[in-house]
Specification:
This protein is an alpha/beta fold and 132 residues long. The strands form two sheets. A three-stranded parallel sheet has the order 3-4-5. A two-stranded antiparallel sheet has the order 1-2.
Amino acid sequence: MKAHNVPLPSGEVVISGENFRNTYLLRDDISADLLVPCGGRPESINPYNFQKLFRKDGSPRFKYIVEGANLFITESVRPKLQERGILLFKDASTNKGGVTSSSMEVLAALSVDESDFIKNFRVKNDGSIPKM
């Protein structure tokens, strides 16, 4: 289900949830010391939009970017961000923990038969949670 015309607490109306998701970090009103994009789309930061990661005075809106998503920043843009003061932690190094834990989740799911899953992991009809 796609979200359209969603009001934010500020009063701003988000016309397209998908567009908002894809461009939120490029907004002028967003800044932080640390940006950790996870699950983003490949090439979200590219030669056409990377300038939006900088304020009008040229200072970076994020001091550090730790890519938790594959290929979030295009290779051609990486040196430009670093030259202008953003310290990057590349996806090939930083998202390995997520890949490893995801693999363990899949392995765990494959290791449990349906009756054990229902007994140990599913919330009961009365709302009680299985004890671990």
